[in-house]
Amino acid sequence: MTRVIRAALTALVIVSATVGCDDGPGANVVHDNPVKRMLPEGESLLLRTDFNDDTAWRETLDAVNRFYESEDVEYGLTVIDTPDFREVTAGDLEKLLTSQYYIYIIDEQTIRDPEHPILAVDNSGGGEPAAGLPTFRILPREVGPAEVNLTLANMDFEDFASAVDADGVFRGF
């Protein structure tokens, strides 16, 4: 049963800018920002922003998911895989986010680098204005352990950010 649930979570894709809204013919609905409405409140996100290589995307997602399968822990990420976020940057997200905690961005660098280092972004300030959100790169196999420890407040974002290698990538403790 757990494996079935994980498989369903792996396949989770938010595909419509009108999630939860009836914008069919005749609907008179006004929305502030369609992309912002797609971001679930108060959740850690695994956000795809590069759509040039589906194989690399799947490899990266599978590498992230292996931790949850092997450790039998609750899947703590909301996967967002929609071209509406094509080439969105951490700076762009800072303007959109309100209560998300941590965002793991699968961007062009993630896709083209053989290790697929994901951009980890700290928005644990709840969308408070800042001079840029803290970031570092993290290997896909380390996203699960980081997400669990950050969510449980066992560790802080800085604990991981300060343990990156010389190239700025966290590969584990």
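(the above was protein one; protein two follows)
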Amino acid sequence: MDKKILSAAGFLGMTAIVLGAFGAHALKKVLDVEALATFETGVKYQMYHALFLLFVAVNGALSHKMKQWIYRLTLLGVLLFSGSIYLLATKSLSGMELKFVGPLTPIGGFCLISAWGVLMVHFLKKKA
């Protein structure tokens, strides 16, 4: 499980850097300031959660079951939260109608909050 989480963390971190560079260089020329800031929000949250998964993977105080829950919630959260933000921020480039994507952002945010909540509850319940 740790290898899977570390691999996912590496992938999320790597793609966050690629997307951040893409936003700073290529998208800067074609998106307005607000859309670019929105895109950067997706990148930030993706990177934060790549680092979060690194912490989860190397934390020996977490059970396999807890790591699985946090891993799944975090991956789903990043996919829905950051993924929907990327699509919405660049919708002017695709010309596609993306109304169905809007509700995915808060669902992804809830998954990310839940992953942190699972971590918090685990440590609050843990005896000293």
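Reviewer note on protein two: The helical segments are 2-25, 33-58, 64-89, 91-94, 104-125.
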